């Protein structure tokens, strides 16, 4: 018998969410995960058999496996469609700093995740995206659940170029706790 990979073990831990995905085998999901950076849309669309909230939760877990650095923040993808994404992080210890507020890097990473996945999801599967620059201005302490919305105009997309995202990271009361700018470079028809 073949030894289970780490990825497969992690997926089995999420059986409560993934149990609903009977039509999608673990092997199919693993194959899709190998191509995820080039084809996020296929993975997300394969999860369409699930109710919206469960689909977003399952996709968040899958992305957490693919991007392990982000997984510890326990991010939650709330909405994803071409040109738009809303994602949040909870107020938990792994996201906190020494004064028990959201760590500056946790807030910045939230924006990076939202803008990067939004762009990668919206482009054709043979595209490549890479973060070119980021800057974050922290306006107040981040407490409670934080949310960011990333949005861009699909009509601005060409064969290659840059997409500039200006986002606001907001708390539960819809107050802006940080403003950030992420510049992503993309190429369509990218060949490895």
Question: What is the helix tally?
Answer: 7
Q: Which shape, going by the Cα principal axes?
A: globular
* Residue runs with pLDDT of under 50 for 5 or more positions: none
In percent, how much strand structure appears in the residues? 25-35%
CATH fold type of the largest domain: Thiol Ester Dehydrase, Chain A
Q: Total strand count, please?
A: 6
Any idea of the CATH class of the largest domain? Alpha Beta
CATH architecture of the largest domain: Roll
Largest sheet: 6 strands, antiparallel
> Quick check: average pLDDT?
82
Structural class by sheet pairing and helices: alpha+beta
The CATH superfamily of the largest domain turns out to be Hotdog Thioesterase
């Amino acid at each position: 018998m073949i030894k289970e990979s780490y990825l497969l073990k992690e997926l089995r831990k999420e059986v409560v969410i993934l149990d609903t995905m009977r039509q999608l085998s673990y092997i199919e999901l693993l194959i899709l995960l190998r191509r995820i950076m080039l084809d996020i849309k296929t993975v997300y669309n394969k999860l369409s058999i699930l109710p919206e909230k469960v689909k977003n939760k399952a996709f968040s877990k899958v992305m957490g496996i693919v991007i392990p650095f982000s997984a510890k923040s326990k991010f939650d993808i709330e909405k994803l469609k071409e040109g738009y994404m809303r994602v949040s992080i909870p107020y938990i210890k792994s996201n906190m700093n020494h004064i028990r507020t959201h760590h500056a890097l946790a807030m910045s990473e939230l924006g990076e995740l939202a803008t990067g996945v939004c762009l990668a999801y919206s482009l054709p599967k043979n595209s490549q995206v890479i973060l070119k620059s980021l800057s974050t201005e922290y306006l107040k302490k981040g407490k409670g659940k934080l949310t960011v919305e990333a949005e861009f105009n699909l009509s601005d997309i060409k064969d290659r170029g840059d997409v500039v995202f200006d986002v606001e990271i907001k708390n539960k009361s819809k107050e802006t706790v940080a403003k950030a700018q992420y510049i992503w470079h993309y190429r369509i028809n990218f060949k490895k």
